[in-house]
Amino acid sequence: MGRDDLVISARSIFLNKGNRRKFSLFTLIIVSVIVLSLEFFKIGPINQFRSVTKDAVFKTSYIISLPFLSLKNVYYGVSDFLKIYEENKQIKNMNSNIAELKYENQFLKEENIRLNALIDEKTLFSDNYHVTNILLDQQSPYLRSIVINKGFKHNIKIGSAVRNGSYLIGKVVEVNYLTSRVLLINDLNSKIPVIIEPNGISAIVSGNGSKFNGDIEYLPEKNQVEEGHVVYTSGADGIISSGIPIGKITIKNSKKFVKFFADFDQIKYVKVYFKK
Amino acid sequence: MSLFANRIYSKTITSLPTLILFLVVILGLNINIIFKNYNFIINFSYIIVFFWSLKKPEHLGYGLIFFAGIINDVVQGLPIGISSLDYLLLSAIGAFIRNRSIIYNLIYDWISFFIAILIVGSVNYIILITIFKIPIVYESLILGLFVTFLIYPIFFKIFVWIDNMVLVKQYDKKNR
């Protein structure tokens, strides 16, 4: 009796369409499995279809989330406004002559170009970039990523560096026709070759899920890395150009971390680099 | 005009569970929490799919559940189809429990939900780890499922309230 009941139940659940339903549960489970297995095929038409579907979902999602985004912006606007007085005081106290630093920076840049020319060093990296807004910045435990409003139509390629202001925030890992997904440097899968100045020590910065700090791996055992040292990209991967600031060294319980310069909560626009 | 407005209102009200599910997946309202180095997610969409499949399946169609899963995968950057499979499995378990049980109460639903998310979590984990080689921290997954299980009663009360206050009233009005 029990077994018959089970069979009848299963049949009614999986095969009956019920009122006003166009598909049975069984059909849809099969379709899900087929769609899932298509993820293995990276051939032309399937890729194009996937790319178009993703573009459509990202754009729709962006439009629907606009009212919620504006609420978030209002919140950050108010909190920034409340901090203005404090920030103004800090800026006044900073003893920096910006114009002087600018000229010094310009001189060093030109000197660097001259020296590179002397040793016949060729620049592999591109200075062309698009400024683009962020369509989605949903964070899941599996992936810390953002979706940007530029795709392969705009010459974006996998591996392109993405900056927020002057700071590196990630690299492109998936390109659709009009949109791309950027893996943030705080993602568990992110590994960026870096150089720690002023001593020029090479290491790898890897994400740990935290939006404030990243881990430093492959540091030499006897290193002279101290709190406050600055971490830049080294360009050793041949994808991301060298000298992009990432963060500052902080030491907690004698373990060294990188405190990111970028504030991942307040990124609205990013610069994505591309080669023509 | 009034008739048209009424029809739109009525349609919106009866589609409320679907609208909630789509808002959750499109806006990524599944809350992501970092606790003691464990990064886990409270999956509201599991609660929505399970509750409405169990209580009032007529308000949440299978096709729409499938579609919501596809959107969730695209937004979250997961292999397309995995969330649809999860949601449909949850629906199947919900429908099975509905078919087999006579008494409905919170405790019974809550325990059923626990079993359902354990099954779905296992399927999800096996597929992502073995087939797609996506690194998932097992503890994070379990922690996420456990917290989702813990908050089920809150949503149970909210959804029962929505059902009684809005959907049943609308149904009565229609049948009057």
Brief overview, please?
With 276 residues, chain A is α+β, with helices and mostly antiparallel strands. Chain A contains four helices and 13 strands. Chain A is 36% helix and 27% strand.
Commentary on this structure:
With 276 residues, chain A is α+β, with helices and mostly antiparallel strands. Chain A has a domain at 130-276: Beta Barrel (Thrombin, subunit H), CATH 2.40.10. Chain A is built from four helices and 13 strands. Chain A has helices at residues 2-15, 25-37, 44-93, 98-118; strands at 129-136, 139-140, 143-148, 161-164, 167-175, 180-184, 191-197, 201-206, 213-217, 230-233, 245-252, 255-260, 269-273. Chain A starts with a helix and ends with a strand. With 176 residues, chain B is mainly alpha-helical. Chain B is built from eight helices and two strands, in the order H-H-E-E-H-H-H-H-H-H. In chain B, strands 1-2 form a two-stranded antiparallel sheet. In chain B, helix 2 runs parallel beside helix 4, helix 4 (62-76) runs antiparallel to helix 5 (82-100) and helix 6 (106-131) runs antiparallel to helix 7. The longest helix of chain B is centred in the C-terminal third of the chain and has 26 residues, at 106-131. Chain B is globular, with a radius of gyration of 17 Å.
Give me the secondary-structure category of chain B. mainly alpha
Q: Are there runs of chain A of 5+ residues with pLDDT below 50, and where?
A: none
Query: What are the secondary-structure elements of chain B, in order, as H or E?
Result: HHEEHHHHHH
Radius of gyration of chain B: 17 Å
Strand order of the largest sheet of chain B: 1-2
Q: Which percent band covers the strand fraction of chain B?
A: 5-15%
Order of helices and strands of chain A: HHHHEEEEEEEEEEEEE
